[in-house]
Amino acid sequence: MSNIFRRATIKDVAQRAKVSIKTVSRVVRQEPNVKPETRKIVEAAVKELDYRPTSAARSSVGARSYMIGLLFDNPNPSYTSAMIRGVLMETRAQGYHLVVEPITASDEDVTEKVKRFVIQSNLDGVILPPPLCDRQDILEALNNLDKPCARLAPSDPGSDGITVTMDDRQASQELTAYLISLGHKDIAFVTGREGTATTERRLGGYRDAMKAAGLTINEDWVLSAGYEYHLALEAGEKILSGPRRPTAIFAANDDMAAGIIAACYKLGLSVPGDVSVAGFDDSVIASVVWPQLTTVRQPIEEMASLAVNQLIATARDVKDTDNDHKKVRSELIVRASTDRPYAAANVAE
Fold first, then answer.
1. CATH number of 168-298+333-346
2. What are the pLDDT digits (tens) for 88-131?
3. What is the CATH number of domain 1-63?
4. Distance between CA 313 and CA 307 in Å, rounded?
């Protein structure tokens, strides 16, 4: 049974007036840039539905809530915690508050959830990391709500809006080339979540380096583990239990690399004596796992901080529009998990 006492929402008003939610918001806030006839239609719908906007919705033009939202759908806890630290430090430094909302990108109603979150929280802007930053429906919803967003590592960094990126493909190529320089020819690669731009870029860098060195890729050694430790442990066991094993395994993030090391120990293999293992991100786990990981340092906190800085500048109308796209540098970090290949490592016992 429907609830006849349900309070009318801004969406109800927009549907009745046949206009966008953004237009209703402008009328409610008494903004000047609305056509008189449109304003009359919206005001009539507001009266008919007895719509009572919140105090935030009635705020005058230019009013700010000093609230920044962070939406994320990432199974990698190390990446997520670093990202939150970066966003939190910058919001605090600039006198803003952070609202964090985990969300599942695969949900059918994900766009409605995003709109509800933004409207109810009265945000000044939104931070979108992968894979949400590549969802066109979410970007359009935020645009219709007149809410700026900053995207971390989107698949198309040259598109309109605020973006903060790092060259994942080049960084992956450099790490693979480093393994090759040690003498490794049989190198496996464990990828992240299938279908995401980050996964494709890191896999592409690995393939680029192998091709440049004239090395053949064994496709049985290219497996997906979704950026998750336990899936990487399973993938590592599969790769290392075959009739012939690689001398090195490059995992597309540090959590998966830790899972690969666990798989090596489970099978009685030493790291790096039998198998060299490398990761990506230089998250906390890269320094606490043993041996410590050779990895790519991705400045996640810096990227998140830059995104917030640009977003707040937009909210204050002081942003340099010619500098929307920020790019940070990666760094190859060499530690004890990689070494030259040993002759015995290429033959399963």
1. 3.40.50.2300
2. 999 999 889 999 999 988 888 889 999 988 888 889 999 999 88
3. 1.10.260.40
4. 10
**67-165+300-328 and 1-63 share a CATH fold:** no
Going from the C-alpha of 146 to that of each of 119, 125, 170, the distances in angstroms are 11, 9, 35
Which of 244, 178, 176 has its CA nearest to residue 210?
A: 176
Cis amide linkage into residue 341, ω under 30° from 0: no
32 band by pLDDT with thresholds 50, 70 and 90: low
Any idea which residue has 């990446």 for tokens? Answer: 79
Fold of 67-165+300-328: Rossmann fold (3.40.50)
pTM of the model: 0.76
Alpha-carbon gap, residue 314 to 311, rounded angstroms? 5
Give the per-residue pLDDT at 59.
47
| Other beta carbons less than 10 A from residue 330's beta carbon | 20
